[in-house]
Amino acid sequence: MSSNFKRREFLRLAGLGLGLGMTRTLAHAADETEVHSLPRPHTSYPQFGRLPLVRASQDRIVKETVGLRPFRESGPNLSHEKIGDKSVFHNYGHGGSGWSLSWGTSSQVTTEALSTGAANFAVVGCGAVGLTSAILLQRAGKEVTIYCKERHPNITSSVATGVWSPDSRICLKDHATESFADWWNTTCRTSFKFYQSFLGLPGSPIEWVDSYAVSNTPWDAERPKDPNDTQPEYGHFRDYVKDLTPRFVDLDRSENPFREPYARKGSRMIFNISAYHQTLLREFTSLGGRIVTRDFQSPSQFQELPEPVIVNATGLGSQKLFGDKQMHPVRGQLTVLIPQPELNYSFSNNDAYVIPRRDGVVIGSSKNGIIDSTNLSVDPRQSFDAVAAIARSMTQSKIAKG
Ligand SMILES: Cc1cc2nc3c(=O)[nH]c(=O)nc-3n(C[C@H](O)[C@H](O)[C@H](O)COP(=O)(O)OP(=O)(O)OC[C@H]3O[C@@H](n4cnc5c(N)ncnc54)[C@H](O)[C@@H]3O)c2cc1C
């Protein structure tokens, strides 16, 4: 790769708004890009004659869910502390990226936990993060018991969209420092690599699908800020790992089957959460893992566990359990339609998105995050509008006209 290219890439990354103090990280990111991605030619395969329609209709709704993302201002807490004679390794606060980053943060935390030399480990929490931590400890030959208040399907991990979204609500923009970006880059790459080992398994726990994004306005057009949007500014790091996934390609009018004039096509990795959760659980139990129901009111109760080393993967539970003031719930609502086995692409327009999961067609509003809201009631208007927004794109597309 030419030094000119490296410089251009460096300057482009520097333009991401992460601040002038980030030069070392940005250079590192450019180097990563150089190592991992020789320029890849890409081909778009127009196939709209064969695209199935999303059957977005209100009477196909089978489930509406609300979950609270475990957002932490400065990013996940992966620190270590002694509580009495127990060593506690924290692994919580993954925001909207908990499934995506689970293998990455769990690899780091369990490597440290294993360095204690213990033979038995407790993991508190049975969500995406607790299960992956437990499995990594078992893969290292250790005995693991999971303790948790609740488990699938009654936890946040069960009500996630199920897409590779490794920088979603991962920290506040103010905390997007050089060292954070470096850490995120490494963690993200580790997690991504683990996920590729779950492809092609029975039940398709993880798969890649084509992905279409459409818009009524040009991609670079300024969008008016919604006056009701109270979201803080989050850190964004996605460009550091853009070499990991196929690029989105703009479609010209002859290739664009949708009613919206602007369309892009790419690919995205999705998590079929029911099947993926079962896959994780099967590995955990087949390696001798036990799950014990237990609700901890205070960290001092960790003293009562027989295991000397504990991984704390309690997600938003850590806000109360450890009094972590950096933790905030970020509410998210999803609408799930009857599965459509033939649906093989994800889709988004200006108002909503669709993920073709095997366990249900998941629809979310593009305004799907309210910070510090703990309201777990479904907002029927939000569900209705999101499904209607997808229906509009579908019924007026060329696919519908045949
Ligand atoms: C609407 C929505 C969409 C999302 N979409 C995506 C996505 O597409 N991709 C992605 O990567 N992420 C997504 N996320 C984020 C992801 O779901 C979370 O980051 C992830 O589930 C966090 O996992 P966890 O294991 O830390 O927490 P949880 O799943 O909440 O698990 C915590 C565990 O700890 C236990 N626990 C808590 N407190 C205690 C206690 N005091 N005593 C005992 N046990 C306790 C709980 O019972 C549970 O077993 C989404 C989240 C939401 C809400």
From TrEMBL:
Gene Ontology MF: a single term: D-amino-acid oxidase activity
Alphabetic keyword roster: FAD, Flavoprotein, Oxidoreductase, Signal
Cellular compartments per GO CC: cytoplasm
Biological processes, Gene Ontology terms: D-amino acid catabolic process
PROSITE patterns membership: TAT
Oxidoreductase listed as a keyword: yes
Span of domain FAD dependent oxidoreductase: 121-385
Keyword Oxidoreductase found: yes
Required cofactor names: FAD
Family from the record: Belongs to the DAMOX/DASOX family.
Reactions listed under catalytic activity: a D-alpha-amino acid + O2 + H2O = a 2-oxocarboxylate + H2O2 + NH4(+)
Signal peptide: 1-29
Name under which the protein is recorded: D-amino-acid oxidase
Residues annotated as transmembrane: none
Pfam families linked: DAO
Enzyme Commission identifier(s): 1.4.3.3
